[in-house]
# Entry
Amino acid sequence: MAADAPHPAFSEYAGESVPQAAPGTAGKDGRLALVFARSDGETRLVRDFARAPFHVSGSLCHTDRTATVYVQSPSGGVAQGDRREVSVTVGPEAHAHVTTGSATKVFSMAHNYAESDVSLSVAPGGHLDYVPEPLILHPDARFYQSTTVDVAPGGSAVVGELVVPGRLARGEAFEFERYYTRTRLRSEGRLLVADDTHIRPGEADPQVPGVLGSDRVFGHLYVVAPTAEEAGLSDAVHRAVADGPATAGATRLPNDAGLLVRATGETADLVRKQLRAGWTVARQQLVGAEAPDRRK
Amino acid sequence: MTDDRPALTAFQLADSFLPVGGYSSSYALEQFVQTDRVESATDLVEVLTAYLRGQVGPAELVALRAAHRATEAGDVDALVRADRRLHAVTLPAEFRESATRSGARLCDLRRQTTEGELLQAYASREPPQQYPAVLGAVTAVDGVPERQACLVHTYSFCSDMLGAAQRLLSLGHTDAQAALEELKPVVSEAVTESADLRLESMAPFAPLVEIQAAAHERADRRLFVS
# Structure
């Protein structure tokens, strides 16, 4: 067994060599590190290290004092053997919004796998919205993703994901091999929430009652706010997401970590719209402004 | 002489006569019925299959096994860890609350009816007392083997859910028994597969169950607490 596999299910793939560039070599070893800090009443991007295939062209400032960064990728998507590492640090009282310019495609794979590690941390009084565009899993894709979010007391974060199980418009769905996503929510290092999802459509059909039913697209929004006394926040967000063409609901997370919105739907647009309604309500309560407008 | 105590404990814990309040929880089944997603015995078996494969097997049984092993080893720290971990991966609020209510009752019951130093030490640590973790500890104390303990939990889950379904749907006793029969292979499979998962990588996945649980939290008229 190869020692570097992130999960036993991936150890067999890890031993396979990639015919083109080796896993983790130049161009396949993306690193992105963003640091936001508040100074003179403004949030500034004080560090932006990006190694291919990541590209960042500075931050944009919105009217509500939130710095926005669009992460771009010239490679077109995630290929076999790719290893990516993203870290976003938000300092005290800083407000940041990090997203991608377009959907992230995870391409078909015959060898090895692709992995993405995301670490997000927010200091007291800080707020981060990390809501990338959808992830599209092409046939035979093998993708492992790990997201760790550490939010200090008094800070908050909204972390979203939307998974599209193939190029739906051409009738392709759930032809990927394996998708594993691991989320850990912490505060001051203490584990508050652990959420792993492991989907292998070839072994267990997710389109069954209680799982996705007839829906194809699924997504979530974590609203992490460890010390906010938001008894009513979960109810308010639930009201915002519960009605609509997608199926969605909000519930309070364990250990007073905040709340979770889960959603499933027929298309990415329907699910995104409902998640966004919940995001706006949460953000209004947490930082007094609605979800940032995305001009892409 | 044969020691029948483990087998008798297993029957006792799988019996709906056990006063831990299993009859008051529907784990969102009530919402599935209210929204017409479950209307027949066939729908019911399909949805219960999703619970077993998506929630009970890949999370509850993994924690139960860890709690059982911790108790056998006399390791209170590991028992508390299994319990806290299950609590941290159980995302619908009502599921955690129901599991804590039943778990705390079982823990109290056993502390009153058997001498359990380990359970005393466990309870004094203010753990979340999730039912599967407490059940893992109680079965280990009485010598019920790990796999049987898993079968006890999964069987009780099915029988509680079918009991709830009888009250929610016009489901007869014969239909309920037939459903239980159909679920037996799913129960076995869930128990077998849970042996390969670690506490650190429990991976439940049943979004529509979680969404129904979220809606149930806010339902105006409800018969069940979850």
Q: What stands out?
A: Residues 212 and 218 of chain B are 10 Å apart (CA to CA). Chain B touches chain A at residues 32, 37, 43, 46-47, 49-51, 53-54, 85, 87-94, 96, 200-203, 205-215, 217-218 (CB under 8 Å). Chain B is about 70% helix and 0% strand. Chain B has one domain: 26-217.
